């Protein structure tokens, strides 16, 4: 069967609000073509609107990409905000497992879209300028996880001398690697989330949980 070209993308349902149709079309095209090859003209055509209408909702393709990440992919921010506000609601291992699962899903779905950024220096530069202006960027999840771990540290469930930013970087780095590092293996697929997320949480916990054997250590487990 002949593969559908970008110009043959099925237009979004006209009954949906224009902004939603644009986001749906952008998400589909960015997944199939990559960010660098997707144009606002193609997005508008797939959304069933004019390019001028697209620019009424989004200032640029770069802003549209950020909105796709925030509104169409698994979101880590709300989970981190909730856990930071109530760090002792569940065990530290359960919380880290939740974070690892959500982060792995986000990177798994965002990597195919964002990878082409690094093949186009001009696009990457425009993207970086846009995310700075919007207060976004790939460093924000690291800050969010570090803030959560700092809350746990203050609650006595993380070692007082643990580097929470380094721990957050390790956790999210492993989740990001899961999105692309296993394609060349014999299986050709990443580790299942049901085993990956708990194993990652337990491994990180072994390095940051309180060293004593008292109540704090038991609570961390």
Walk me through this protein's architecture.
This protein is mainly α. The chain folds into 2 domains: 17-72, Arc Repressor Mutant, subunit A (Orthogonal Bundle), CATH 1.10.10.60; 75-207, Tetracycline Repressor, domain 2. 64% of the residues lie in helices and 0% in strands. The protein contains 11 helices and no strands. α1 (18-33) crosses α6 (92-114).
In short:
This protein is mainly α and 221 residues long. It is 64% helix and 0% strand. It holds the Pfam family TetR_N.
Which percent band covers the strand fraction?
Answer: under 5%
- Alpha-beta content class: mainly alpha
* CATH architecture type of the largest domain: Orthogonal Bundle
Continuous helix count? 11
Fold topology:
Layout: H1 18-33, H2 40-47, H3 51-57, H4 61-72, H5 77-85, H6 92-114, H7 121-134, H8 139-154, H9 164-178, H10 193-208, H11 215-220
What labels describe this entry?
221 residues, Arc Repressor Mutant, subunit A, 2 domains, 0% strand, disordered N terminus
């Amino acid at each position: 069967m002949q593969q559908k070209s970008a110009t043959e993308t099925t237009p979004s349902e006209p009954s949906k609000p224009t902004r939603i149709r644009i986001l749906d079309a952008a998400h589909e095209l960015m997944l199939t073509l990559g960010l660098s090859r997707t144009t606002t003209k193609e997005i508008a055509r797939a959304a069933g609107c004019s390019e001028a209408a697209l620019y009424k909702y989004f200032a640029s393709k770069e802003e549209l990409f950020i909105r796709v990440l925030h509104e169409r992919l698994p979101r880590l921010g709300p989970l981190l905000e909730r856990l930071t506000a109530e760090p002792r609601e569940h065990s530290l291992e359960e919380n880290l497992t939740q974070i690892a699962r959500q982060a792995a899903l986000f990177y798994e779905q965002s990597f195919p879209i964002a990878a082409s950024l690094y093949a186009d220096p001009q696009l990457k530069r425009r993207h970086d300028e846009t995310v700075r202006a919007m207060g976004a960027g790939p460093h924000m999840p690291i800050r969010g996880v570090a803030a959560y771990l700092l809350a746990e540290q203050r609650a006595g469930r993380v070692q007082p001398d643990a580097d929470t930013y380094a721990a957050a970087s390790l956790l999210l780095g492993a989740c990001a690697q899961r999105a692309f590092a296993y394609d060349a293996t014999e299986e050709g697929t990443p580790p299942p989330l049901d085993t990956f997320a708990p194993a990652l949480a337990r491994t990180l916990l072994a390095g940051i949980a309180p060293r004593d054997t008292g109540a704090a250590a038991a609570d961390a487990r």
